[in-house]
Specification:
The complex is a heterodimer.
Chain A (H helix, E strand, L loop, with lengths): L3 H31 E5 L1 H6 L8 E7 L5 E2 L4 E6 L4 E6 L12 E10 L2 E7 L10 H8 L2
Parallel strand pairs in A: 1-2, 5-7
Antiparallel strand pairs in A: 2-4, 2-6, 3-4, 4-5, 6-7
Chain B lengths: L1 H30 L2 H30 L6 H6 L6 H6 L5 H22 L5 H25 L23 H30 L4 H32 L10 H26 L3 H24 L12 H25 L15 H33 L3 E3 L1 H21 L14 H20 L5 H20 L7 H23 L1 E7 L4 E4 L2 E12 L3 E11 L5 E4 L2 E5 L5 E4 L1 E4 L3 E9 L6 E9 L1 H26 L1
Antiparallel strand pairs in B: 2-11, 3-4, 4-5, 5-6, 5-7, 7-8, 9-10, 10-11
The chains are: A alpha+beta, B alpha+beta.
């Protein structure tokens, strides 16, 4: 019914489109497993199910909460509503201080204990990660 | 105060000259008057002149620490060393945009001077499209980010520059990166102009290649400097974090690389016309949207500094206008540049360029989705996520293997048609590569299947590229860059799989063991400098053979603004870097110490330099051909 050329072109366009759609679908599917969600201490306390995936927790480092020994650092992240204990064995960025914003990445042990494997760096003492700003604003 | 007003006035006059250039060009196309062309020269020079005056005035106010200027007040301090007073100019939003404008206006002037042999209408249209960008940026600077805002009463001292930016690599990083970014504006304008005047052919490609190469080389250099800075200043011991701000410099790089290969085909075979145009447009859009994403504060990045949403909205509108214009032009004038109906033989250089472009676009899409998806998700569901290295590793690494293999054979293909004859040398290649792979794998700690294939394909690429140097009639610039790329990938691979790190909180006098090395924290000294005081630790690293290396990491506490930064102590050798940082957590005696072994670190920098050298070589070699 159509010429050979037209048919070829239709096949070509359809295959290109399916490839694009398929690849975006695959990419997004993969993304599901590898993205890290951001939670505030309050969100963690209120969530009904157990969070087993890697997450980020943000808020303020509570005053007088930092203690350390040879292997690890313990501190408390607060959003002034709820708190969570953090245990961390690793190096901290320069701007890690009590009563300053912080974002920690790691896994939840239970709803009161977070085992961090990374504390994220910031470059600017006035800068606060948008997530932290927002979760503090809601207080 | 007066100086700042003069600077502002100068920028205003610059904007007026931009309009004058625009008008002149439009009139010239309509009436075709000869003396008008002279006026274009005049106004282009004037526009550049006014920007340069503004730039030097701002530079001067930075040098003399004139705190009546708000930009200087916010970003400088009288005790800062002169070098950082100067580079502080582009260490902030307002100043960096002025720098952007300076490069923008100088490039169009340079383009107009250097393109005398090209069709007149093409040159004029290029100026018109480029002026749209220039005017857009002028208004952006004057309206939302005027670097000459004044303060009254005049503060006696400035707020200082973020100490983390007070660093030689980061001082020259923005200008280099901007030349790369802004170079794409010429590519964009020239692509639209070629579209309108029906000049999308091999001549256009030949001339545009020079600009593509310049942008590409500078962009590579800019990314390299940024990575080096991140490596030693941020104290993580890494050089690439897949951070959004890094990604947005990688995306134009990927599309520029695609364009660089594609434009070769257009030059030699008059093929891929529309595709070249699309790539030119996309590259520039990625550069502008990069600025938008960084400046608007939409991106959630560790690099983000304080910012202002109104700026983001302006750039967003500007971006949409540009995309709209390019779409309209593309669809109206598409018929003017009909694609040649040539068959492409599957074993040919054309095919390999096509394959290269597919891969580039795939890599680009992965990075784009990883960067943009969190923004969309936040807008739609207000769920906050971040996309990290596992995502990119999963999606990119498997595709790197075929990419390396195609890259090994691609450059050996001929244009039009390659006759594949069986050669005994193939067997040698294969044996040589296998032997080299087996030896390298033997030394590696991890041995999984994917890794072995990855190493194999990379070694094959290196061997193949090396042999290309000895062929007759070969493109040495290309060989160099390809070799540099192969070496870069090899070094990154070995670096990432065999780096080790150990982190402890220890007191002075204590010792810890890392693999085969014993590290002793010997002493702590303090040191006072003009703009910071520092705590310097002395560490002794003793390996199995009792060889001793001393490392002196530092914590600096800057006076203005009061920020602590840690300066890593790095001992570089050909085979590995030893990297140590210290940090005080509370004012206690326990120091947070991070000690890392990073193999082949220096080869990452060297191989990127080889890539850049290849690009530079290509730029100059082409120039010789013209004369």
């Amino acid at each position: 019914m159509y010429g050979k050329k037209v048919r070829l072109r239709i096949v070509f366009i359809i295959s290109v489109l399916t490839t694009i759609i398929l690849s975006i679908y695959i990419i997004l599917k993969l993304l599901e497993d590898d993205v890290v969600y951001f939670k505030s201490p309050t969100e963690i306390k209120q969530s009904s199910e157990n969070i087993t995936k890697k997450i980020r927790v943000g808020g303020m480092v509570k005053k007088n909460s930092v203690t350390l020994d040879n292997e690890k650092i313990l501190f408390v992240i607060t959003d002034f509503k709820n708190e969570i204990n953090v245990i961390f064995a690793g190096s901290v960025p320069n701007l890690f201080q009590e009563e300053k914003g912080v974002v920690a990445e790691g896994f939840l042990e239970d709803k009161n204990l977070f085992v961090a494997d990374k504390i994220l760096a910031k470059h600017d003492e006035n800068y606060m990660p948008p997530e932290v700003k927002e979760s503090l604003k809601q207080k | 105060m007066i100086l700042s007003n003069v600077g502002f006035l100068s920028l205003l006059l610059g904007l007026i000259s931009s309009f004058a250039v625009f008008l002149c060009t439009v009139l010239n196309i309509k009436k075709n008057l000869l003396n008008l062309e002279k006026n274009i020269y005049k106004f282009l020079t004037l526009q550049f002149f006014f920007v340069i005056i503004g730039f030097f005035i701002l530079l001067y106010t930075f040098i003399i620490s004139d705190f009546s200027n708000e930009t200087v007040y916010n970003n400088s301090h009288s005790t800062k060393p002169l070098f950082y007073k100067i580079t502080g100019l582009w260490g902030n939003h307002e100043g960096s945009l002025l720098l952007w404008l300076l490069v923008l206006t100088s490039f169009i002037l340079f383009f107009f001077f250097s393109s005398k042999d090209e069709p007149k209408n093409f040159r004029l249209y290029t100026v018109i499209f480029h002026q749209i960008i220039v005017i857009g940026f002028f208004i952006f600077v004057l309206k939302t980010s005027n670097p000459f805002d004044t303060l009254f009463p005049v503060p006696s001292e400035g707020l200082g520059l973020n100490p983390i930016l007070q660093d030689p690599a980061l001082a020259i990083h923005p200008p280099i990166l901007y030349v790369g970014y802004v170079g794409t504006s010429i590519i964009f304008a020239s692509a639209l102009a070629a579209m309108v005047t029906g000049y999308v052919n091999n001549l256009w490609a030949k001339n545009l290649k020079k600009w593509v190469l310049i942008s590409w080389t500078f962009l590579t250099g800019g990314i390299l400097l940024g990575s080096i800075w991140a490596y030693y200043e941020l104290g993580w011991g890494g050089f690439w974090f897949w951070d959004p701000v890094e990604n947005i410099s990688l995306m134009p790089w990927l599309s520029l690389t695609a364009l660089l290969h594609c434009i070769l085909t257009l030059e030699k075979r008059d093929l891929f016309k529309n595709w070249s145009i699309i790539l030119s447009i996309v590259t520039f859009m990625l550069s502008v949207s990069g600025t938008f994403l960084v400046r608007s504060g939409i991106l959630n990045s560790v690099h983000t500094f304080a910012n202002d949403p109104s700026r983001g909205i302006y750039i967003l509108i500007f971006l949409f206008v540009l995309i709209f214009i390019s779409f309209v032009i593309f669809f109206i004038f598409e018929n003017k540049n009909l694609e040649n109906k040539k068959e492409i033989f599957f074993l040919s250089k054309e095919t390999s360029v096509l394959i290269n472009n597919w891969f580039m676009i795939y890599f680009l899409s992965v990075v784009l989705i990883g960067t943009v998806y969190p923004i969309f998700l936040d807008v739609i569901t207000s769920e906050k996520i971040s996309v990290g290295p596992p995502f990119y590793n999963k999606l990119l690494i498997p595709f790197l293997i075929p990419f390396f293999l195609f890259m090994s054979v691609g450059p050996s293909m001929n244009w039009i048609k390659t006759n594949l004859k069986f050669k005994a040398s193939y067997i040698y290649y294969f044996l040589l590569t296998s032997a080299a792979t087996i030896i390298t794998i033997y030394f590696l700690t991890q041995k999984d299947f994917l890794l072995i294939i990855l190493v194999f394909s990379l070694v094959f690429l290196s061997v193949k590229t090396l042999t290309n140097f000895f062929k007759n009639n070969t493109n040495h610039a290309q060989n160099l860059s390809h070799l540099g790329f192969a070496m870069l990938m090899l070094s990154i691979l070995f670096n990432s799989i065999s780096s080790t790190e150990i982190i402890k909180n220890i007191k002075v006098g204590e010792t810890f063991i890392s693999k085969n090395e014993k590290i002793t924290f010997e002493e702590v000294k303090t040191n006072e400098k003009k703009n910071y005081s520092s705590i310097i630790g002395t560490f002794e690293v003793k390996n199995k053979n009792n060889k001793i290396i001393k490392l002196y990491p530092e914590i600096r506490i800057y006076n203005q603004p009061v920020i602590a930064t840690s300066e890593a102590a790095i001992k570089t050798t050909l085979f590995k870097d030893r990297f140590i940082t210290i940090n005080l957590i509370k004012d206690e005696q326990l120091f947070n110490v991070r000690y890392q072994n990073k193999p082949f670190m220096i080869w990452i920098w060297i191989s990127t330099l080889i890539i850049i050298f290849g690009g530079t070589f290509a730029v100059f070699r082409k120039k010789k051909n013209y004369s």
